[in-house]
Amino acid sequence: MKFDIYGRFRVEVRRENEEWIVYRAELGKRTRLIDVMIPPDVAAPEIATWLDDVFHEYAGIGQMVDQLAD
Question: Which residue segment(s) compose the domain that 53 sits in?
Fold first, then answer.
């Protein structure tokens, strides 16, 4: 799943070995964000809300984390 974080950057969240792994997605490469942990029991439809909670300090007024089409 890919997400736009308030128009500032993008992340990709993948399910690997029963865990959610978060990567920062940049042009032509991905870098794992080891500081961003999503508990394994968080359901896929709740990931955007979870990311909004984690990155809220980057948000401007009225901005939200948006899921992007794959």
Answer: 2-68
